[in-house]
Design a protein that fits this description.
heterodimer; A: mainly alpha; two-stranded antiparallel ribbon; 3 helices; B: alpha/beta; Amidase signature (AS) enzymes; 11-stranded mixed beta sheet
Chain lengths: 95, 492
């Protein structure tokens, strides 16, 4: 399966990574090379094999649905590039 | 011998006897670190924290309350969140990030009295095999045979370089596809990746959550047992931390493997493998046989498909995990132009913040998870993963106690030498190690010999799930038989 320039542009946008138009051919080529490598997987007979979901056979832990943590908004905001009045600040989203 | 050259076990014994103080060992390491800037192994030095912790450790030792790691100075991989200390995963996108919390592994180590000398470099987000993707520039292998600078391997290359050059007594590493074992092999040290779920992932910057596992990188097998003991715990904060008590790993080091069954997997004899690696493998096999183990030929038929399966699954998980770096909550945010909205903020921030290899993996992951391709790539890879795991289960069910393989397909290569290689060629570094992550098993790399060029080469032992004690014991036998005592000569 080879990736064309339009697909590379679409993938970059889905991944929210800006890629300049002139760099798309190289990206398409790199991604195609990696996907070609993955095509070997088509040789394997996976009939009747379930996709692996858990590395070790274990049930995910459960706990009571109660608040056990929180109350430190200032710590959460401490590393934000832009925080104001107790909130994360971002460019205007709605007019 | 200066104090920074000590092993953990020798330092522990000397500390307990009062022959030396943690402050003295720590100062010796800090001086060695300051004299080793040419290795570019450290991305943050924390001498004040180190000396304060060393003083506290000395008080604890004096009071007779001294766990094995008490007073031992360590390097901490840049992937572990450390409260108030820069934690960047060697990425520009986490520039300036100082966590408000401590990872479970590092907290366990501090609770045991260990000392933090600083943070050590790595490949960006642990994606790489040479530390060349680090935003700090590559770490350099202390082993040198000509004018070239060699890679210490990756992703835990800063950890490996620091331990091999005696800048610390040991370091933490993490291993998603071989990131502890490959750098350990490239620098002549010991590195163990524990069973998935043995060590908490809480507070470790996530790469691929179903594969990531932290472990120690040390000078000896005994040190690995002591340090793993302190790192491992049952942690309610990590939903995949297994509810299995941590046994005494050092007590398992009997040096006796008589009657144990060692599997030699025929599929690991890959085409194009240097003759020296094959020879080393044969020698290692003979060492275990001489120690009384029974050697058996085994087959792990899906080995060939481990690498392609890994390079579907790991990027898929990474694309999801790294979605959190959006320029909002922490780290870097791109400068925005007039009229730029939130989508431009995301796209510019991530384009400027992530390096090329990380971007490539995020995009591959995005692609294999996208509508229309999810079944063909991601689900197929997870099915192949189930088969790889089954291969191991069948071998262990047939009575094999441990599996011996090469650790890497070559010894350390030169920095920049892979610059023109395709991404896939770099991925081949993981060919012997990645199966272990896919199956969630413990694996250890032990230095066994030097190649004709004079560079260290390692062998890997793979153990049964939760059998780290037994695995370490096999590794001890190999270590003793190999008698690897070589050290890099100081040029830095």
């Amino acid at each position: 399966m080879s990736i064309d320039i339009d697909t590379a542009r679409k993938v970059a946008h889905l991944a929210r990574i800006a890629v300049a138009e002139e760099n798309l051919p190289k990206l398409a080529q790199d991604l195609s090379g990696i996907l070609t490598f993955m095509e070997q997987l088509n040789e394997v007979d996976v009939e009747g094999i379930e996709p692996m979901t858990s590395v070790t056979p274990m049930r995910l832990k459960r706990r009571e649905d109660v608040v056990t943590d929180g109350g430190y908004a200032e710590k959460i905001l401490k590393n934000a590039p832009d925080a104001r009045e107790g909130f994360f600040a971002v460019p205007k989203v709605v007019e | 011998m200066s104090l920074n050259q000590l092993t953990i076990s020798a330092a522990r014994d000397a500390l307990r006897k009062g022959e030396v103080t943690s402050v003295e060992i720590t100062e010796s390491c800090l001086a060695a670190i300051d004299g080793a800037d040419a290795l570019n192994a450290w991305c943050a030095k924390t001498p004040e924290i180190a000396l304060a912790q060393a003083k506290a450790a000395d008080a604890r030792i004096k009071a007779g309350d001294a766990p094995g790691m008490c007073g031992i100075p360590l390097g901490i991989k840049d992937l572990f969140c450390t409260r108030g200390v820069a934690t960047q995963a060697a990425s520009r996108i986490l520039a300036g990030f100082k966590p408000e919390y401590e990872s479970t592994v590092t907290q366990n180590l501090w609770d045991a009295g260990a000392v933090m000398l600083g943070k050590v470099s790595m490949d960006e987000f642990a994606m790489g095999s040479s530390t060349e993707t680090a935003c700090y520039g590559p770490a350099v292998n202390p082993w040198k045979i000509d004018d070239r600078q060699l890679t210490p391997g990756g992703s835990s290359g800063g950890s490996a370089a620091a331990v091999a050059a005696d800048l610390c007594l040991a370091a933490t590493g993490t291993d998603t596809g071989g990131s502890i074992r490959q750098p350990a092999a490239f620098t002549g040290i010991v590195g163990i990746k524990p069973t998935y779920g043995r060590v908490s992932r809480w507070g470790v910057v996530a790469f691929a959550s179903s594969l990531d596992q932290a472990g120690p990188m040390t000078k000896t097998v005994r040190d690995a047992a002591i340090m793993l003991q302190a790192m491992a715990s049952v942690d309610p904060k990590d939903s995949t931390s297994a509810e299995i008590p941590v046994p005494d790993f050092e007590a398992a080091l009997t040096g006796d493997i008589r009657g144990k069954k060692i599997g030699i997997p025929r599929e690991y004899r890959i085409e194009g493998m240097p003759e020296e690696i094959g020879k080393l493998w044969d020698e290692g096999t003979a060492m275990l046989r001489d120690a009384g183990a029974e050697i058996v030929d085994i087959s792990l038929p899906h080995t060939k498909y481990a690498l392609p399966a890994y390079y579907v699954i790991a990027p898929a998980e990474a694309s999801s995990n790294l979605a959190r770096y959006d320029g909002v909550r922490y780290g870097y945010r791109a400068k925005l132009g007039a009229g730029d909205g939130i989508v431009e903020m995301y796209e510019k921030t991530r384009a400027e913040g992530f390096g090329p290899e990380v971007q490539r993996r995020i995009m591959i992951g995005t692609y294999v998870l996208s509508a229309g391709f999810y079944d063909a790539y991601y689900n197929r890879a997870r099915r192949v993963r189930a088969l790889i795991k089954r291969d191991f289960e069948q071998v262990f069910a047939a009575g094999v106690d441990a599996i011996l393989t090469p650790a890497t397909p070559s010894s350390a290569f030169g920095l920049g030498e892979m610059a023109d290689a395709s991404p896939v060629e770099m991925y081949l570094n993981d060919v012997f190690t990645v199966t272990v992550n896919l199956a969630g098993l413990p694996g250890i790399s032990v230095p066994v010999g030097l190649d004709a060029k004079g560079l260290p080469m390692g062998l890997q032992l793979i153990g049964r799930p939760w059998g780290e004690g037994d695995l370490l014991n096999h590794a001890l036998v190999l270590e003793r038989a190999a008698g690897f005592t070589h050290k890099p000569s100081k040029w830095w």
